[in-house]
UniProtKB/TrEMBL annotation:
Its EC number is 2.7.1.71. The gene is aroK. InterPro entries: P-loop_NTPase, Shikimate/glucono_kinase, Shikimate_kinase/TSH1, Shikimate_kinase_CS. One of its GO terms (molecular function) is shikimate kinase activity. Its cofactor is Mg(2+). This is Shikimate kinase. Catalyzes the specific phosphorylation of the 3-hydroxyl group of shikimic acid using ATP as a cosubstrate. One of its GO terms (biological process) is aromatic amino acid family biosynthetic process.
Length: 165
């Protein structure tokens, strides 16, 4: 949450001229309400179930850049499917950066359940070892979106040169 998956993913899709899909927006469309309302009305378990199904459908579709929600990669089945059909990229941010980028934003229900900084610290501890299984890791720091996008593109360019050699 706050790493920039949605913003940077959209930018990258424009750069590479491929479709961009945000899994959270797809879930909201299917449910007819926003993520916060899905959590409130149906509960987190129902959201996770919808998230798993929506991501599976997207991965079975046309090639695209997909921004998942921060919890999606924690699902073993989703992780396996991403590994089989796609290339995963972890936008890795320090806790401080995540706090700065999420402060004052109310649309992430998990951060409204207590002290957001504490919740984010716990999630970083739980999730980062699993996120480390991603194919590619790119750091995102306290910097402009353009700087992060440029770092991702440079990393991908370097990797494609490595594969070409
Ligand atoms: N370098 C950066 N990369 C990505 N987002 C940034 C950056 N700097 C500031 N931001 C802000 O941080 C927030 C990231 O949110 P978002 O893209 O929704 O992240 P996620 O989808 O990972 O939760 C946005 O409000 C964006 O404007
Ligand atoms: O980390 C999480 O568990 C979540 C992250 C959110 O997406 P972003 O990571 O795009 O904010 C959204 O899917 C939901 O609020 C749960
Ligand atoms: Mg997002």
């Amino acid at each position: 949450m706050g790493a920039g998956k949605s913003c940077i993913g959209r930018n990258l899709a424009q750069h590479f001229d491929v479709p961009f899909i945000d899994a959270d927006r797809e879930i909201e469309e299917a449910a007819g309400c926003c993520v916060a309302d899905i959590f409130e009305i149906y509960g987190e378990a129902a959201f996770r179930d919808g998230e798993r199904r929506v991501i599976k459908r997207i991965l079975e579709g046309e090639p695209c850049i997909l921004a998942t929600g921060g919890g999606a990669f924690m699902n073993r089945e989703t992780r396996k499917l991403i590994g089989k059909t796609g290339t995963s990229l972890w936008l890795k941010a320090d806790l401080e950066v995540l706090i700065k980028r999420t402060t004052g934003r109310k649309h992430r229900p998990l951060l409204n359940q207590g002290n957001p900084a504490k919740i984010l610290r716990k999630l970083v501890e739980e999730r980062y070892p699993v996120y480390a299984e991603a194919d590619i890791t790119v750091e995102t720091r306290d910097e402009t979106q353009d700087t992060t996008v440029a770092r991702v593109i440079a990393t991908l360019d370097e990797l494609s040169r490595t594969y070409d050699d």
